[in-house]
Design goal:
The chain is mainly beta and 508 residues long. Strands 6-7-8-9-13 form a five-stranded mixed beta sheet, with no helix packed on it. The protein has a four-stranded antiparallel beta sheet with strand order 1-29-28-27. It starts with 33 loop residues before the first helix and ends with a helix.
Amino acid sequence: MESDEATAAAASPQASGGIVTPLPKKRGRKPKSKDDSQTEQQSGGGKMKESGGKKTKKQEEEKSVDEKYTQWKGLVPILYDWLANHNLVWPSLSCRWGPQLDQATYKNRQRLYLSEQTDGSVPNTLVIANCEVVKPRVAAAEHISQFNEEARSPFVKKFKTIIHPGEVNRIRELPQNSKIVATHTDSPDVLIWDVDTQPNRHAVLGAASSRPDLILTGHQDNAEYALAMCPTEPFVLSGGKDKLVVLWSIQDHITTVGTDSKSSGSIIKQTGEGGDKNESPSVGPRGVYQGHDDTVEDVAFSPTSAQEFCSVGDDSCLILWDARTGTSPVTKVEKAHDADVHCVDWNPHDDNLILTGSADNTVRLYDRRKLTSNGVGTPIYKFEGHKAAVLCVQWSPDKASVFGSSAEDGLLNIWDYDKVSKKSDRAAKNPAGLFFQHAGHRDKVVDFHWNAADPWTIVSVSDDCETTGGGGTLQIWRMSDLIYRPEEEVVTELEKFKSHVMACASKP
């Protein structure tokens, strides 16, 4: 089902990908202090008076965003099985599902990892929340559309706060035990946290930062975004401004819960005897890989091997690596996109397929069997449905051909590669493969994550500073199953429903 009406916010100024500024590139804008916001409002009011009340271009864009959002909200009961909207005081640049805690008749409870990117008036934090995920076909249509954009959702409750040393740019959980998470900040180090044993902190001005359970060293410059955890072994992968890809093993620092009496249930081993217990233990790299000519923006492990991984960067390259063959690229696609490449994901169902997303507004699908060692390679398909830079791509854990992409245009698109060759006349005006657009965000969608424990359920987060002046919006949603199920099944079900309605209507 294609939702032509469901379009969303205008792109940010960086959407074209061609603007070069001397400032470091940030995918989430630093929030303004209240004083700055008030000053801007006052100066803006003066400009309005001077211009005789004429609306600025920005105000026209904001009106367009609001109109499109209102239109989308009216379609929520039709398009969604469930949706929860949670207003964030501060923007979060990352959102990830943690472990499922328990299951009940109508909903499941699950951990959710977020962050708070503040203006400095309070510390930056890593937030552990408990989320109630309503099961399919439970929520009433009228309930999911009746939410207040300025309110916090009753389905999301903060459980623990970790005071993070610097803003949290990226969060990744360890697949073997999702209570262990890695974070990237504006530093060369990767920080490892055992969220269960970390103490709950109050984020007040002047409070000392929480102490990471482990620090991974090896970068020579800041590593801000590129971060991955291996699905098969406890390996961590990172990329940074030093143009390097760095690999670590944290195998020697992980233990099974409860088997180490000294750790009080922590799965991070306490290392060192007689050392400073206030210092976090550190781990050096297992390998350092050179091949990029600019900042490495994202990395991904092969779903089947801890020794194989890939990376993308601002040099527009896609590089495949194999730790068993050395530290040089196995395959380097010199021009994977026409601009900076922001994101990459390796298909968990088919280890030949790799997705990339770029500032050229496209998502491209590569088959590694069709890439040659001299860097020649063309995508097997180019998906064009965004109007601004693509920030995140991720394959669905539920169906091998389905993936999502989010961008600075405020849209989160859901695609099905299998539908590319089966494009119907009815869908001719829509981009090939695109079968759903989530348009509930009013600004750039900086991150999203499919829920492996709850099929077809997604958490997404937007940085709303540019449009609403607020912090951010977190949404947890599941499209109606009538959209993605086989057409024959859907038609049969609707016919049964029609017969039931007719039978009820004919009764005296």
